[in-house]
């Protein structure tokens, strides 16, 4: 069985596992859509990609460290138990957004992982850079439908009419926090936060303070884990 197909099954297995383990889902999820993707040239199809027992080796890079390690290990263990002919080679690799040098170095060397976790907003970029391969035929074979996913998450995985990744987890419970004291000092209604992007941009301009060429108060700070974008 090619590693690309095996990796696709791994994605499906993880999705089913999380559906039946809501506590695990809430524990693992970051405040972002995180997806699994296949590396473009990471498909293990040669006999050398098997261990001594003849099991196909599938390399998986994941960013789940600390307290979340044991949780994600349960997911991998569940997959390994149901697929004894496949050996997962799991490696913890922190995701540092578009500057993920370890991954892109491995792609350039022709030795990337078979499966990698990537934040949703990065999918299009990584696909455009040739680091991923489309999953269309695997998704079709597995009878996966767009309606199986939260619509915004699915849209993140589609680029140039191809699906490049599958959503692993997502937490849509984002909160907008504002400083009422700063709103008041900027002449804004402290009890009326922005409800549109245009309003937010306008308020951010009023809230921002620049003194002697240095920003002393930033009107809005985009989310850190998306590189302040």
Based on the structure given, which CATH architecture of the largest domain is correct?
3-Layer(aba) Sandwich
Q: Which spans have pLDDT < 50 for at least 5 consecutive residues?
A: 1-34, 40-48
The largest beta-sheet arranges its strands as: 3-2-4-1-7
CATH fold-level assignment of the largest domain: D-Maltodextrin-Binding Protein, domain 2
Total strands: 9
Q: How many structural units, i.e. domains?
A: 2
Q: Give the oligomeric state of the chains in this entry, treating copies of one chain as homo and distinct chains as hetero.
A: single chain
What Rg do the Cα atoms give? 21 Å
Can you give me a brief rundown of this structure?
With 229 residues, the protein is of the alpha/beta class.
Describe this structure in words.
With 229 residues, this protein is α/β, with parallel strands linked by helices. The chain folds into 2 domains: 3-169, Periplasmic binding protein-like II (D-Maltodextrin-Binding Protein, domain 2, 3-Layer(aba) Sandwich), CATH 3.40.190.10; 180-226, no CATH class. Helices cover 35% and strands 17% of the residues. The protein has helices at 3-19, 22-28, 69-82, 101-108, 123-128, 136-141, 151-156, 180-185, 197-207, and strands spanning 34-38, 56-62, 86-92, 115-119, 158-159, 162-163, 165-169, 209-211, 214-217. It has a 5-stranded mixed β-sheet, with helices on one face. α1 packs across α3 (69-82).
List keywords for this structure.
5-stranded mixed β-sheet; disordered N terminus; 229 residues; D-Maltodextrin-Binding Protein, domain 2
């Amino acid at each position: 069985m090619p590693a690309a197909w095996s990796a696709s099954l791994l994605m499906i297995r993880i999705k089913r596992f999380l559906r039946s383990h809501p506590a695990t889902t809430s524990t693992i999820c970051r405040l972002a859509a995180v997806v699994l993707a296949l590396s473009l040239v990471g498909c293990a199809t040669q006999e050398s990609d098997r261990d001594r027992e003849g099991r196909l080796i599938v390399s998986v890079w994941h960013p789940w460290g600390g307290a979340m390690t044991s949780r994600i290990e349960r997911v991998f263990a569940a997959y390994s138990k149901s697929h004894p002919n496949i050996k997962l080679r799991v490696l913890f690799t922190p995701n540092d957004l578009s500057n993920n040098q370890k991954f892109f170095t491995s792609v350039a060397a022709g030795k990337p992982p078979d499966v990698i976790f990537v934040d949703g907003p990065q999918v299009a970029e990584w696909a455009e850079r040739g680091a991923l391969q489309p999953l269309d035929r695997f998704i079709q074979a597995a009878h996966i439908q767009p309606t199986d996913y939260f619509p915004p998450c699915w849209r993140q995985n589609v680029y140039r009419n191809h699906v490049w990744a599958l959503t692993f987890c997502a937490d849509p419970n984002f909160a907008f926090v504002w400083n009422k004291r700063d709103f008041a000092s900027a002449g804004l209604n402290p009890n009326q936060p922005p409800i549109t992007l245009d309003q937010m941009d306008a308020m951010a301009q009023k809230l921002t303070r620049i003194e002697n060429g240095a920003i002393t108060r930033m009107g809005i700070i985009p989310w850190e884990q998306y590189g302040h974008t």
